[in-house]
Amino acid sequence: MDNKYRLSVSNKVKRFIWGLVWRIFIRPLPKNTFRVWIIFLHKLFGANLHKTVNIYSRAKVYAPWNLEMNQHSCLAPEVDCYNVDKITIGSYVTVSQKSFLCTASHDISSKNFLLVCKPIVIKDKSWIGASSFIGMGVTVGEGAVVGATASVYKNVEKWTVVGGNPAKFIKNRYIND
């Protein structure tokens, strides 16, 4: 979307219906149970999910039709996936508890604070630490780690570790076999 726009009435209706479905049929479920049911309902509303993903019942997805998750990826409890624009999550990615993925903001130079949106991409084998913020337009590179409570406003290079607010490079990441 990457522009200024207003949400259509049909979008608002879909979000309202989705919100009811989430509150009634997903959120009350016990922790880490009914994974297939949760995937089914997200897919019913247009999510592109691999059958091996794990979306916890307490993870909140704003617009399933703007979510793509590849194999063995996870949205942990209390993740807030505010995907007004598309969020693409690669394979073997963990988005830890209480993280906030935010694809939208407001144009502060507009007198009406128009909504602006940009997609988020989290590449394969990355880990988003607990209570992190990933801002609109950010790409988290393959194998990157975002430390707990970090606030990410710029792209994260592949196989690096970042942390802080704003997130800064800490070190390169290496895998021991």
SSE layout:
Layout: E1 4-5, H1 9-26, H2 35-44, E2 48-49, E3 54-55, E4 60-61, E5 67-69, E6 74-75, E7 80-82, E8 87-89, E9 94-95, E10 100-102, E11 104-106, E12 115-117, E13 120-122, E14 127-128, E15 133-134, E16 139-140, E17 145-146, E18 151-152, E19 160-163, E20 168-172
Parallel strand pairs: 2-5, 3-6, 4-7, 5-8, 6-9, 7-10, 8-13, 9-14, 10-15, 13-16, 14-17, 15-18, 17-19
Antiparallel strand pairs: 1-12, 11-12, 19-20
Description:
- This protein is an alpha/beta fold.
- The protein is built from two helices and 20 strands.
- The strands form four sheets. It has a seven-stranded mixed sheet with strand order 3-6-9-14-17-19-20.
- The protein is globular and about 45 Å long.
How much of the polypeptide forms β-strand, as a percent range?
25-35%
Taken from the alpha-carbon principal axes, the silhouette is globular
Order of secondary-structure elements: EHHEEEEEEEEEEEEEEEEEEE
Unreliable stretches, pLDDT < 50, 5 or more residues?
none
Counting DSSP E segments of at least 2 residues, the number of strands comes to 20
Distance separating the two termini: 41 Å
Structural Rg: 16 Å
- Indicate the percent of residues in helices: 10-25%
Q: Can you count the helices? A: 2
Q: Which key terms come to mind for this protein?
A:
177 residues; alpha/beta; five-stranded parallel beta sheet; 2 helices; 20 strands; globular
